[in-house]
Amino acid sequence: MSLEAAIARRYPFPGKAGDAIRERTLRLCRDHIASGLADNNCEQRLCSDDHSVFWQQFSEVLLAHQLKASGLKLSHAAEGADFLIEHGGQRIWIEVITPEPKGLPDAWINHTVGNVVSFPHEELLLRWTAALKEKAEKLLGCVDRKTGERVPGYRDKGIVREGDVYVVAVNGRLLRGFGGVMPELNGISQYPLAIEATLAVGPLQIRIDRATLKELGAGHQHRTRVRKPSGAEVPGDTFLDPTFSPISAIWAVDVDEILLLGEPRPMVVAHNPLASTPLLPRFLPAQSEYFADVRDDYYEIRREDGVLVK
Known about the structure:
By secondary structure, the protein is of the alpha+beta class. Helices cover 26% and strands 23% of the residues. It is globular, with a radius of gyration of 20 Å.
């Protein structure tokens, strides 16, 4: 199947808006392939009927487009993270992942209009922690669970060097509820899921004196671990662990083809306070950027406007 036919089948929308989506999506994909920024199987993946395969590849296309539109020059190597930016003597690597909706309730993903559905905040958070774990292992290496042998990462191979910036770009497109029509990056805490997954931020809570039943205060839970359905726990405080200091930030986005019609989509940068090589503020396109100001015995999360806020 040709790329044109695959795009037409995936976006069979009528009218001028449908024509614009098909034409702009096809042009963007062709430009991406011709630019040298794509792997050899890029076109094959864009033609795939598998929703997850397509979106993993199309996310790379969309994010490369966003980076170039911001005036950044990209390159792509046969081995290593998806994109490399060389800026002011600094090397910035961008590794893209689009988490699949594994473990999310069908009532959330394939919502029926009129039905009430709960916000699956823990299931969503687990998809973000899993995405970060996968890309952290790409960078730092891991131990193969079957063989027990160490699998080297980009740092071991010398691809990502000491002093390089490494950013994990997570597109939450496949995790949307309500039939996939509402882009959303925030979790139960009202902070981005990228913050909940890395800085131990849990739901809002009220502390009550058990004797007097008077309110003692309110705030967010400090949630360092997230429980999986199996009972196992995964870390929710990655950016408070020096082991992960080679990861500079998470670029959290929820982007799709509607971006090509000029409609904004949410983008957030979550900075690692312990990063060995921090990402410069307002470098990546985003509406918001989050920082953790670490003190002796506590830390405060600070939000600032991103470069997309004029």
